[in-house]
# Entry
Amino acid sequence: MSAMQADPYAAPMPGMAHGNMTTVGLVDHAKNGFDPTAMLTDWETGRTELLPEGRTLRIFEVDAIDREIEIAPGIFFPAWTFNGRVPGPALRAKEGERLRIIFRNFGSHPHSMHFHGIHSARMDGVPGAGLIGPGEEFIYEFDAKPFGCHLYHCHALPLKRHMHKGMYGLFVIDPDPALHPEHAAVAASRLLGSPENAEWQEMAMVMNAFDTNFDGGNEVYACNTVGQAYMNVPIRIDKSRPIRIYLLNVTEFDPINSFHLHANFFDYYDTGTTLTPTQRTVDVIMQCQAQRGILEFSFAEHEPGMYMFHAHQSEFTELGWIGMFDVQEPAA
Amino acid sequence: MSDQTHTGRSALTRLMLVLVPLAAMLVAFVWIASIDPLRGFNNGAPPVEALTVERTILDETGIGLRVRAGGSDPMVIAQVAVDDAFWSFTQDPVGPIERGDAVWVRIPYPWVLGEAHLVNLLSSTGTGFEHEIAVAVPTPKATGTQLRTQALIGAIVGLLPVALGLMFYPAMRGVGSTGMNFLLALTVGLLAFLLVDMTAEALELAAGAAALFQGSAMVWLAGLSSFLLLMAIGRWRGQPEGLALAFFIALGIGLHNFGEGLAIGGAFAAGSAGLGTFLVLGFALHNVTEGIGIAAPMLRFRPPLWTFPALTLLAGGPAVLGMWAGSLAYAPQWSALALAVGAGAILQVMIEVGSYLMRQNRGRQAVLFSPAVIGGFLGGIAFMYATAALIKV
# Structure
């Protein structure tokens, strides 16, 4: 009050911290059935069989399920999911493999899986080609190509509603080192399960958002569904090992989303279909809907600490799409 | 049924005749609640949710909102976003908000003086309830300085003009019957303007109140009730005239000025009106006619001197109370109620002044459509309308 009397036109809030920009409370990940932290490294590799000609057949099973999920503390969203989680399972295969995806619709609406990849029209997951009604099953089959960081999503119409209800996921095809002799080492480092790959700290990140009142604008923005998840639980990083992020944007209603890394720069492989970066030494990249790419960077030269990352649309940031890397010395 | 059988009933029988339907009602309610016959209509739709912000406080701790729930189920405020940024908040009392209950939501948000902010309260179903703060200014607090300043403004817009109007009394005493008719018609005209203005204001405020207050019905019924009550009180001992009529006019105008004080106080608190000298002068000019109206029924006799300050206080004083209430304890439904009661009072004095005018001209009904009466009535409305243009912001 005394401050007010000194200057009646001053906003009377001396010393008010801006550190209150936060959601209140925590999401019950156990009840949700998925945890954003576990999701970072939870690659779905399916099961494999050997085909007569010597090729690997990789089989995935994916179910469409209606499910209410908690997307920010206390805010519940009636989602349509693949395998009960949003984003859907991060499918991962190797270039050249034969893929078989057994898709069952346990939801209340027609759904499909439309893969961004190279396949025949019959396998495209659009109406008349793999779009199935509730209780039905469809088997998609095609070759894993081209290598890169891709996605799949439901292509039932209206597409906008099926997208933002949660029906999308990463679809990563690792390069086969044998097919890329000029960059064999790089390819090997991206091949899940190789010794070279084990050096990397790989993460799956899907930038998404939720229109909870269905007015055509998003109320909650997130990386991997839960707003501010990586603020509440920062991502542990071993500073001695390089980091690779498979990043996908599926945000509905807003034309673009972006990724900004604090106090560091990264190399970017747009769509992940090359073994040399498409952009070098950047700290912000933007993606339109369904655009995706691979980020590679390292904290080896940094001192340990909390390093922020977020969308660089401030609105998205402050409505949940923000997180922290907790960079630490390697565990003894 | 004859009178004999009616009076022949014992008190116990009559009691039973009331208790039986009451008991049946109770049993029916319990039965309906227990078997939930509407379960069959449950179509999986989420509960209806409603939140109404009744009061906004901006101070050194941030933003405080008084929020009333009015949904079909208890509601949970899950998150609060200010200007598209999730912000920490506390709720008092905590927990789900029952239908009809109100809570305080306090947000430690560094609001910016003179700028607009948008608060979005998100429920557990993700429904957003937006509340706009059009111009952020510190909410007045109940300090001595603040109360004195507001009392001064209230006195200028309420007391001063009524006193000035009453000062025309000696000049008015000399008028003949035509002049008298003109002045009474002028009074009815200005009251007609106030009636329309207050009713519109009350309905507008009521629209911003929680649905469970049924704003529109509340305004009409409260206005009607206050009109009937005041009519009954006024006619307890014959039709009011002279001093009594002057006091009723002063009461009606006083209630109107209370409403005007509420509006100014509320606008002041909301930052939507920087009270310029021009605006205050406008109010004063607008209200000068009120003093003339109060004086009109007293022209035929000499009232004791004390009546003038008493009438001034009754008609103008409520403006001060309204200022205080409007800026310190504002709630749309109670403001609407106060305005509706005032509108009923205005209608009562319109009827009484009109009836007094007719009695003054007994046997000469044609006078009611004479240039003096019609001119006075229309002149009153026109003057109020024109001066109101100065104060509507």
User: Anything to note?
Assistant: Chain A has eight helices and 21 strands. Residues 29-328 of chain A form a domain with the Immunoglobulin-like fold (CATH 2.60.40.420).
